[in-house]
Fold each of these.
Amino acid sequence: DVILAGCSSGAITTLVSINIWRELMHWVPNVMAFADSGYFLDLDGDYSYWKRFIWETQNASASVVPECARQHATEPWVCFVAANSLPHATVPVFAWQSRFDSNQLTGGDCTR
């Protein structure tokens, strides 16, 4: 059994690339994921906007879930946001998110 885990940016990577890891470890019977504080709010596209740089300059396109990239073909960088990539996960995922994440509480209008 393998549990892929990450915290904060590592959790984002875990959530975004979990299917790729599953394929790479095809011989492992059980692959699961644990994401600690990787679910960032994307209010009005403010968060995903900054992920465009990663998509365009860091050749990170191979790390996102292909189904997500196809679904969001005009803005594939939004697949770096858990809310967009997680629906395509093919393995069980346990997400742990602090409700006191200072980045989330001060990064936008949290009243929505």
Amino acid sequence: RISCDISRKDFFENYEKRRKPVMLVGCNKDWKAQDRWSYEKLIPRFDNSSTWRATIGNNEKLKEDVAWSDIASSMVQNSPFYIFDQLDHKEGKKLEED
């Protein structure tokens, strides 16, 4: 285990180049999403009519036009969901900033 504060150069030289397995720790300490991605905070951030590339439910296929309202409903119902979005969409850029 090593700190996530390692430089790219040191990581490359000591682990990647040598193909040495390593576990990085502490990488999430300054990650805004830890606070901003709770269901209570995510649901109101986006317009219900915005569309996303997402999967909702078990064994569902990826869909290109899932309404945010459907994703929010999954959050409330504690159903599985996975959001994939092209980052050139304005909604995706908001998540990228987190």
Amino acid sequence: SETFARVNCVEILHTKAIWETILNGPLSSNFYAMLRAHSIVFTEKLVGGMKPFAVTAMGSHRFAEMKEEIAKKIAANLPSIMPYSYQYTTEALDMEN
């Protein structure tokens, strides 16, 4: 009941443990593949209507390399950024209730 839920949230299913499993667990490669795909789509959307100019200036191969590099940097920096989200995630999930 209420005590069981609180113990689970504090000792087992707390936000830090959830993110550690996502980032380092047995299915982390799936997460990083999804993160890469979304990062590339995000970069495409961010460039938006400027894409033709960027591709002309950089070349299509370099433009594709840039998107991959951005995705790699996001993945590399994510583990050090996630702890800043723990409190918000805990409140947003509200798993005790």
Amino acid sequence: VLVASVACTGISAAVIRRQRSGVRTKFKVALRPLLDDLQGVWEDDVGNEISISGSQAMFSDGSGAWPIEREDNSDDGLRLRGTLFIGTAEGPKWQFPNGLSRSWVRPSPVAPEDTEW
């Protein structure tokens, strides 16, 4: 039955295996530009540094790599570390289930004269 389903829908067997294993690595076309814009280094409003590379986020708190995942039942939502993306590419904002949110900004470049300070 699975083979017939795959043949009818055009979904690859690898995608089916990832879906069954709970790993969601395939992003909808609408999410790809957003994920591309989030690449690089950010700071949140409590002082964490976040580095985004591909669909992985590394936080400065030492918690390791976290996957950025597509929100279930959504074509344009992202989830990261228990939060839902509610911002924009220019002003990322992530909301926790309890309503608390964290905003991200790009770190300011350090001026050469400030490095000696």
